[in-house]
Design goal:
Elements lengths: L21 H23 L10 E6 L5 H12 L3 E8 L6 E8 L6 E7 L9 H13 L5 E4 L3 H4 L16 E4 H14 L47 H9 L25 H26 L4 H6 L1
Parallel strand pairs: 1-4, 2-5, 5-6
Antiparallel strand pairs: 2-3, 3-4
């Protein structure tokens, strides 16, 4: 590929490596390798996009108004299902952002970005409302879906005293269920085997992850898994392999504690916009595959929705 169409940050990988320790060199090369892979995937697949009319983004920080908090609380009271994700600050690895997407009975849905390093004083009324928001989202009977282990990722929340831990809500890690569903979908591809009738479990047991062996698929419209048995799928690869769509992962490692609104951040508008887009699409892409994975949809069903 010509240097003219390769971004500057992908060129001359070793230019700044002289004098680095071996570990730092490896980290530097690994980061640029991921950036290069992300760049090439962007060229190869269409972007996964959700119409802006379907959602509203609300930031929860020390500038959030009581009016916004009342809106949030009224909205989540009608919801029993959510998608959740977290981001950590690149400089120290501490939990900095919690993204919660509501799955409401009616649109629009809300994306709640909780900026943990920029919360109001615990003496203010807005802080009390934030605690109420957490208690409603994590109440018993609710289901919170994620791509990754939320028991582990949310453990540092105990230091903020915003919710009772461990939670009584159900934390459902879609990442654990995806591999078996994908193998099943390959073996039941309606496009490649139109006469093949699908059979799927009547129900999914959230306490155990099935590990069934399906017959070798004749599916040619979807690639076989790139992972070895027991390896965890990356969310970006899961969306590409299952739906042939791309999500941008270039903002994964970032200054998430620096603030995401103009009132509380020194980051540029463009950078904040990219970070916010990354944060919300991590939730959207997980939500997109919840029902297909848990209800054992075929690839055709997934693409037709």
């Amino acid at each position: 590929m010509s240097d003219k169409i390769i971004p500057h940050y992908l060129r001359d990988i070793d230019d700044n490596s002289n004098g680095r320790e071996q570990y730092q060199q490896q980290q530097h090369i690994q980061k640029l390798t991921k950036a290069e892979e992300n760049f090439h995937l962007r060229q190869q697949y269409p972007q996964f996009a959700v119409p802006p009319s379907m959602y509203k983004v609300i930031h929860v920080n020390n500038y959030t108004s009581m009016e916004e908090m009342h809106l949030l609380i009224n909205h989540v009271q009608a919801c029993t299902q959510f998608t959740i994700d977290t981001e950590s600050e690149r400089s120290n690895g501490q939990l900095a952002l919690i993204q919660i997407q509501t799955i409401p009975p009616q649109l629009p849905l809300l994306i709640i970005l909780i900026e943990l390093q920029h919360l109001p004083s615990n003496k203010l009324p807005t802080y009390v409302k934030i605690k109420e928001l957490f208690s409603l989202i994590f109440r018993s009977g609710n289901k919170l879906y994620s791509w990754g282990d939320m028991d582990k990722e949310l453990e540092p929340m105990q230091d903020y005293h915003l919710l009772n831990w461990p939670t009584t809500a159900s934390l459902i890690n879609i990442q654990l269920y995806f591999p078996d569903w994908y193998e099943w979908a390959l073996a039941h591809c309606e496009s490649c085997s139109p006469d093949h009738h699908r059979q799927h479990p009547d129900a999914i047991n959230y306490d155990t992850v099935p590990t069934q062996n399906y017959s070798l698929s004749r599916c040619i419209c979807h690639e076989r898994s790139p992972y070895r048995p027991g390896e965890k799928w990356a969310l970006q690869k899961a969306l590409i392999y299952a739906a042939h769509m791309f999500i941008d992962k270039s903002s994964t490692v970032n200054n998430w504690a620096a603030g995401l609104t103009s009132n509380n951040s020194t980051l540029s508008y463009g950078r904040r916009k990219r970070m916010i887009n990354y944060a919300i699409y991590d939730c959207f892409s997980t939500t997109y595959i919840i029902r297909p994975v848990l209800e054992y949809w075929t690839f055709k069903q997934l693409n037709d929705k």
